[in-house]
Structures are given as C-alpha cells and as structure tokens.
C-alpha cells in the first residue's frame, strides 16, 4: 500500500506533467484535496506534507473538521451542492464556494460576506450534462444561463467571482466537455477579468482538465484511497 506522501507526490507529478504537455507552467494549477468522508486525522496527515487546500461537500462535515483542525493554516473549499440554510455557516468559515448555481445562493453568501467584512470567494458551477447531453446530471447552472448568472454574482458586493467550476459528465469522454467549459470561461472572463480561475478535474480526468485550462483540480480518491462511503464527487 502506498503512503500518503507517495500518493500526494504522484498526484503532483500528474498535474505537472499535464501542465507541461499543454505548454503551461505547473505552478498555474493548484491542488484541492477532497477529504470528504475521511476523518480529520487524514487531513492532518496530508497537511503535514505541505498540502493546504482541502475540499468538502457537506456543510456539517466541513464545519466539524474545520473546528477540529483550527490549529492548522488550511484553506477550505466547499465543492458540493449548497443549501441556502447552510450557506451562512460555510461562508463564515471563509471557505471558497465552488458550487454557486443560482442568484439566491450568491445573495445569501454576499450577505454574510458583508457582515463579516470578508467577501466570499465563489465559482459559478456549470452543468456539463450527462452522456446524452441532458442537464442536471452533475449539478450546476445551464451553460446558456451562465453569463447572466456570472453578471449577477459579480454585482454582489459581498462575494468575489473567481471563475467557473464543473464536473465532467459520467460515462462520457471528459475532453469535449472540458473544452466547452473552457470556451464558456473565456466568454465570462471577457466581461469579468477577475474571474480567471477554472475549477475542473478530479482523480480520473485531471489531465484532460489541465489541458483545457483548469487552474484548480479537485482530487480525492487518488490522494486518500477508496472512500469509506460512496459519493458522486471524487
């Protein structure tokens, strides 16, 4: 069985190789370790190896781990579907929210950002569809609605639009989907230059995501191993 250090280095090597193959600087691509369903001890182990960014997809699990690991200088990312009644707790932690898919959620986050004086960094999540192109397969806003949603999010003073996020469709080649995402991201950046990041790529498809311009890859299984509980986001 490989060690956490070996797994972390292997993922970093994959990211670096993918970036170089795409003619990019590996330093442009950050790694978010998706620690959902894993105990705080597993996070602490990777943090000791220099990993600082960690992602969770459940608000209760995020707040619990953040409290348990408050002694560490970690940067938390929320990568799951976020209910408005849980949004305030996530925002108060200073977590980066990758899954804004509606204006009402952005406004809730913005309100907390205004109250705390610390604007919430957010990504607009894009629904890339399923194998037949149907929407609502992996969550997110309809691509046709994304430019207007990005405009609305950027107009909120308590949030900062960092870019777009998406999950590749199940049972389909990720490359074409990530290419569509990259084109949409370029369109959004034309109106919002600050939205320069792209959150895409997981354990199985990070190479394709990096080739398409991803600046944050969200990796769980390749870092932690097979999850104790099944989950759609890896």
TrEMBL record:
InterPro entries: Ala_racemase_N, PLP-binding_barrel, PyrdxlP_homeostasis. Keywords: Pyridoxal phosphate. Pyridoxal 5'-phosphate (PLP)-binding protein, which is involved in PLP homeostasis. One of its GO terms (molecular function) is pyridoxal phosphate binding. The modification N6-(pyridoxal phosphate)lysine is found at residue 36. Its cofactor is pyridoxal 5'-phosphate. CDD domains: PLPDE_III_YBL036c_like. This is Pyridoxal phosphate homeostasis protein. The lineage of its organism: Bacteria, Bacillati, Actinomycetota, Actinomycetes, Geodermatophilales. Residues 8-228 form the Alanine racemase N-terminal domain. It comes from the Bacteria. Belongs to the pyridoxal phosphate-binding protein YggS/PROSC family.
């Amino acid at each position: 069985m490989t060690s956490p250090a070996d797994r972390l280095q292997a993922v970093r090597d994959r990211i670096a190789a993918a970036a170089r193959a795409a003619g990019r600087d590996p330093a442009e691509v950050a790694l978010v370790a998706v620690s959902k369903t894993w105990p705080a001890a597993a996070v602490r182990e990777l943090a000791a190896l220099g990993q600082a960014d960690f992602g969770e997809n459940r608000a209760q699990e995020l707040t619990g781990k953040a409290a348990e690991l408050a002694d560490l200088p970690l940067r938390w990312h929320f990568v799951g579907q976020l209910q408005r009644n849980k949004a305030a707790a996530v925002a108060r932690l200073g977590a980066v929210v990758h899954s804004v898919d509606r204006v009402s959620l952005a406004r809730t986050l913005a309100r907390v950002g205004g109250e705390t004086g610390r604007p919430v960094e957010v990504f607009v999540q894009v629904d890339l569809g399923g194998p037949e192109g149907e929407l609502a397969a992996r969550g997110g806003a309809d691509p046709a609605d994304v430019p207007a949603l990005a405009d609305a999010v950027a107009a909120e003073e308590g949030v900062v639009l960092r870019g777009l996020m998406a999950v590749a469709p199940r049972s389909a080649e990720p490359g074409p989907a990530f290419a569509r995402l990259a084109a949409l991201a370029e369109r959004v950046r034309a109106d919002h230059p600050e939205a320069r990041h792209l959150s895409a790529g997981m354990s199985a498809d990070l190479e394709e995501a990096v080739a398409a311009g991803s600046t944050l890859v969200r990796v769980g299984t390749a870092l932690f191993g097979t999850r104790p509980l099944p989950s759609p986001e890896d």
